[in-house]
Specification:
562 residues, alpha+beta, conserved putative lor/sdh protein from methanococcus maripaludis s2 fold, Elongation Factor Tu (Ef-tu), domain 3, 6-stranded antiparallel beta barrel, 5-stranded antiparallel sheet, 9 helices, 46% helix, elongated
Length: 562
């Protein structure tokens, strides 16, 4: 039992020993730190004031000695949207009334208000007089054109109707057509005369009748003509009687019946015996002559039809031209009335303010009685919703531009805790009138901020750069820039840097130096790497001492006269 208690006591002492050892180590380290700090402080205190002044003139600290223009930590911006439209009046005048209120929904073309008429200047009165004269001339022209076209249309219609009639008067307007019709009439009469003459000869030879006008069924000499084909005999006799009746019924030549008859006459002759040779010869010759007369007659008819078509087309073209002139005169009258109404309304009447799009009245800038003019925004119409909001910012040209896709934060002045993230979607390459780049960004989350409100975009840390005097830069043999940096132990060493733009007497440093680094402000050719700052201070003091001694040389030897 005692042995167990002894073991437990020994184990409980081990952690205490470890804690004591750790405390001793911490104490020793702290003692060394404070002793070193005391030594450094002592060294600084031991330095003469003139040495400290020389070091401060030789060495600068990045971030403390700012050699560039002071930059703000945010960029100005404005919220814009393609869902809003500004309402601008079409002319100068005084607002005489609004018919809508803010927040009211409107549709495109709706009348929102009125603008009174401007003062009647001599120029406006002269313009109204010119429009009045133009309207009177257009009205008279339209009336005269309408009367003229009506009469011409009546005349052309009568001419077109007369084309299908017979040419009874030699002095008619269509002389060429009348001549063709007369020729066709002569050809038709010649054709009829031939048919009657041939028919009379055939009747006298093949029938028992002496005159074709009195033929009847059964008159054909069947024992001599068509003896080999009784069907042809029957058909011939029928065709003969039919043609005879048609000829007796009218003055026109029955062409289809005549064609059928001459064909059957040839067939009848071919079916007859040798005693009917004369009839066969005459029937064949008569058929050929009939076809010749018929061809001449049809050719004359075709010429008449072509000439009629030509005249009809000419008449219709003239009629179409008349319709066009009438329509143009009517359109000119309408245009003159519209122009007169517009000028009269601009001078004598009020002008309506109409909505350019559908949406909600978001703002009304001008009240009744205010004088407004073109290109002046008097109200705003916005669609519902907050989509398509864009933050348009101005980025100074002396900072590193952000990249497309960078995420920034936007705030409203007066609301520091109201922040929304925005994403850069476009950056311009030209400077505006303020010397800034233009950039657009979109909200990652829709805000409740109104359109056209001013905001600030917080400047990212990556867009700022340190600046040092351009005289602090040196160039090595390869053409790379560097500076002489000063370590915490006051030792000089070379630091390669990446420079940016030259801003006056300073230059941007993109890489190589960071905030708090020390460097030689105006290095000379005697500085070498691994030198101590004291050596540079001694050299500088020596030069300054020599210069001051030379400047006071006359004072040290007052007995000399120059």
């Amino acid at each position: 039992m005692k042995e167990n208690l002894y073991k437990i006591a020994r184990q409980s002492k081990k952690p205490k020993v470890l804690v004591m050892c750790a405390g001793i180590v911490v104490f020793v380290i702290g003692l060394l730190y404070f002793s070193n700090g005391a030594n450094v402080s002592a060294e600084i205190k031991d330095k003469a004031p003139d040495v400290l002044e020389t070091e401060s003139s030789l060495v600068s600290v990045v971030g403390k000695n700012d050699f560039s223009s002071p930059l703000g930590n945010s960029w100005p911006a404005e919220i814009i949207s393609n869902q809003i439209s500004q309402i601008q009046p079409q002319r100068e005048g005084v607002i005489s009334g609004w018919s809508v209120r803010i927040g009211e929904a409107v549709y495109q073309g709706q009348v929102l208000g009125k603008i009174s008429a401007p003062p009647g200047t001599p120029e406006l009165i002269s313009m109204l007089s010119e429009q009045t004269e133009s309207l009177a001339m257009a009205k008279a022209t339209a009336e005269a054109t309408d009367d003229y076209t009506s009469k011409e249309q009546t005349r052309l219609y009568a001419l077109e109707q007369s084309l299908s009639g017979s040419a009874e008067k030699p002095d008619q307007i269509f002389g060429a057509l009348n001549s063709l019709k007369e020729n066709a009439k002569v050809k038709q009469e010649a054709l009829r005369s031939f048919v009657e003459r041939a028919l009379a000869n055939h009747v006298a030879m093949a029938t028992n009748f002496s005159n074709w006008r009195y033929v009847r069924y059964g008159g054909l000499n069947r024992g001599l003509y068509g003896v080999s084909n009784p069907n042809v005999q029957n058909s011939y006799e029928t065709s003969l009687i039919t043609l005879s009746e048609k000829l007796k019924a009218g003055a026109e030549t029955p062409i289809p019946e005549a064609q059928a008859y001459f064909e059957l006459a040839v067939q009848l002759a071919n079916s007859s015996g040798s005693d009917a040779a004369d009839f066969k010869t005459e029937a064949t010759a008569d058929q050929e002559d009939f076809l010749d007369f018929l061809s001449e007659y049809r050719e004359a008819q075709a010429e008449v039809a072509d000439k009629e078509t030509e005249y009809k087309l000419m008449i219709r073209e003239q009629s179409a031209m008349l319709d066009k002139e009438k329509a143009m005169a009517a359109a000119g009258l309408i245009a003159a009335r519209q122009a007169y109404s517009t000028v009269y309304g601009e001078i004598k009447g009020e002008t309506y303010i109409k909505a350019p799009r559908s949406g909600t009245i978001s703002a009304i800038y001008k009240k009744v009685g205010d004088l407004v003019g073109p290109e002046m925004a008097i109200a705003v119409i916005a669609e519902k919703g907050d989509a398509n909001l864009i933050v348009r910012m101005r980025i100074p040209n002396n900072v590193i531009k952000p990249n497309i896709g960078d995420i920034l934060k936007a705030i409203r002045p007066g609301f520091p805790n109201d922040r929304f993230e925005v994403k850069i979607v476009g950056i311009g390459s030209s400077l505006d009138e303020t010397g800034s780049y233009m950039a657009d960004a979109v909200f990652l989350k829709s805000p409740d901020w109104p359109v056209q409100s001013s905001v600030r975009v917080l400047q990212p840390e990556s867009s700022t750069s340190e600046s040092i005097p351009s005289g602090s830069l040196l160039w090595d043999e390869s053409g790379s820039p560097y500076v002489w940096s000063v370590s915490s132990a006051d030792r000089i060493y070379k630091t390669n840097v990446k420079i940016g733009r030259l801003l006056g007497t300073s230059v941007e440093i993109y890489e190589g130096l960071k905030d708090g680094d020390r460097y030689i402000t105006n290095p000379n050719s005697e500085i070498r790497e691994n030198m101590l700052l004291e050596e540079i201070v001694d050299v500088t003091k020596g030069k300054n001492g020599n210069d001051s001694s030379e400047s006071r040389g006359h004072d040290n030897m007052p007995g000399m006269e120059m």
